[in-house]
From TrEMBL:
It holds the Pfam family Aminotran_5. GO terms for molecular function: alanine-glyoxylate transaminase activity; L-serine-glyoxylate transaminase activity; L-serine-pyruvate transaminase activity. Residues 28-297 form the Aminotransferase class V domain. Pathway: One-carbon metabolism; formaldehyde assimilation via serine pathway. Its cofactor is pyridoxal 5'-phosphate. One of its GO terms (biological process) is glycine biosynthetic process, by transamination of glyoxylate. The keyword Zinc does not apply. The lineage of its organism: Bacteria, Pseudomonadati, Pseudomonadota, Alphaproteobacteria, Hyphomicrobiales. InterPro entries: Aminotrans_V_dom (IPR000192), Aminotrans_V_PyrdxlP_BS (IPR020578), AspGlyoxATase (IPR054863), PyrdxlP-dep_Trfase (IPR015424), PyrdxlP-dep_Trfase_major (IPR015421), PyrdxlP-dep_Trfase_small (IPR015422), SP_NH2Trfase/AEP_transaminase (IPR024169). Its EC number is 2.6.1.45. This is Serine--glyoxylate aminotransferase. Keywords: Aminotransferase, Pyridoxal phosphate, Transferase. It is an enzyme of class 2 (transferase). It comes from Rhizobium chutanense.
Length: 395
């Protein structure tokens, strides 16, 4: 096929042509001034996207999972206790990685349909008078379930409990598509990857670290070598890199932050909120429900749609790929077969979202679900017609 449909997987996301080209660079000497013109704006741009004045931005050739590993190995020591909630596939995997690194994870097992259980975090933080908990883990947006959690509320709990634990946040499927306030929430480590909100190919683990985190890195004792943030921080001021950098991807990152900041972060977040509300309107028009239960925790970047009991939700994903060449996300872990996911993060417009909704409708109707063709599209159109950015500007 000569044409390319947009993807509706929740990452890797669609790449604007200008970013794809930005990553396609002829070789340049990464020890030359030309690299400084790429690295410095990329780092400064990411700092703005996470809304921080002073965060140390560190970019490794890796993926989001590498970002998890870099965060824990740089900031923690063997046997350290961390507080985490297992409320989705990605928080589950991060917990697993912590355990494999010899950390003691105080795991809260909670419903995957709900955001992070604040009351349980509160109980455990207040009970920890000796401050044994060294870090609190938060998955801002559970990509597996379409449930977002309240990072600011976790910060308030830590402050209320006068607890010094580091606040480590997985922002892999939120950062650059949903509001992320590193400084306001006093986040110590924020983690993402290039292939989500930054709309780039897979290949960069992007970290933002607070001064407190950089301090913790001086005494942390878990093994780290390739992922040593101190080496990165040491070489960046002279635009160096401890090893050979992914220059093309970094150039893409520079350009991506220019696009995001050029659109205006608030406009980017509003766009995603608007697109998500159209998708949600479509889901209700189909007579289906989101897997997420609380409206306040509905994700603006991915919607996990529950299918009727006894129906294999993954068949929608397989069928849409085979018949229409359109990619949706399958359910993962505990929700495999029960949900299919519509990703709407990164480069996404109302019109692209409508094509995804229309495709999901066709696939579901083909598979015998009682979906009236056009019902979801019409519901989303109503939202988009009334809230289109240009319509708002012209009002
Ligand atoms: N955390 C979240 C919330 C994710 O959605 C993902 C991947 O989808 C990861 C972590 C892991 O990132 P990666 O696949 O880039 O290693």
């Amino acid at each position: 096929m000569y044409t390319q449909n947009p993807v509706f997987i929740p990452g890797p996301t669609n790449m604007p042509e200008v970013l794809r080209r930005a990553t396609d660079l002829p070789t340049i000497d990464h020890r030359s001034a030309a690299f400084a013109d790429i690295l410095q704006p990329a780092l400064a741009g990411v700092r703005k996207v996470v809304k921080s004045e002073n965060a140390e931005i560190v970019v490794f050739p890796a993926t989001g999972s590498g970002g998890w590993e870099a965060t824990i190995t740089n900031l923690l020591s063997p046997g350290d206790k961390v507080l985490a909630a297992r409320c989705g596939m990605f928080s589950h995997r991060w917990i697993d990685m912590c355990q494999r690194h010899g950390l003691q994870v105080d795991t809260v097992h909670s419903s995957w349909q709900q955001p992070l259980p604040l009351a349980e975090y509160e109980k455990r933080l207040f009970a920890d008078k000796g401050h044994d908990i060294k870090a609190v883990l938060v998955t801002h947006n559970e990509t597996a379930t379409g449930v977002k959690s309240d990072v600011g509320a976790v910060r308030r709990l830590l402050d209320d409990a006068k607890h010094p634990a580091l606040l480590l946040v997985d922002g892999v499927s939120s950062i650059a598509s949903m509001d992320f306030r590193m400084d306001e929430w006093k986040v110590d480590a924020a983690i993402t990857g290039s292939q989500k909100g930054f709309m780039l190919p897979v290949g960069l683990a992007i970290l933002a670290l607070s001064p407190k985190a950089m301090q913790a890195a001086q005494s942390a004792k878990l093994h780290r070598a390739y992922f040593d943030i101190r080496e990165m921080a040491k070489t960046y001021p002279s635009s160096g890199y401890p090893y050979t950098p992914s220059v093309g991807l970094l150039n893409g990152l520079k350009m991506s932050t220019e696009l995001l900041l050029g659109e205006g972060l608030d406009n980017v977040f509003k766009r995603h909120a608007r697109i998500a509300s159209g998708v949600r309107a479509a889901v209700s028009a189909w007579g289906l429900r989101l897997y997420a239960q609380e409206e306040s925790s509905f994700s603006d970047t991915v919607s996990a749609v529950e299918t009727p009991d006894g129906f294999d939700a993954t068949s929608i994903v397989t069928h849409a790929a085979q018949k229409y060449a359109v990619a949706f996300g399958a359910g993962l872990g505990d929700v495999a077969g029960r949900v299919f996911r519509i990703g709407h993060l990164g480069s996404m417009s109302d019109v692209m979202a409508l094509s995804g909704i229309a495709t999901a409708e066709m696939a579901m109707a083909d598979l015998g679900l009682p979906i009236r063709l056009g019902s979801g599209v019409a519901a989303a159109q109503e939202i988009y017609r009334n809230t289109a950015a240009s319509a708002i500007r012209n009002a």
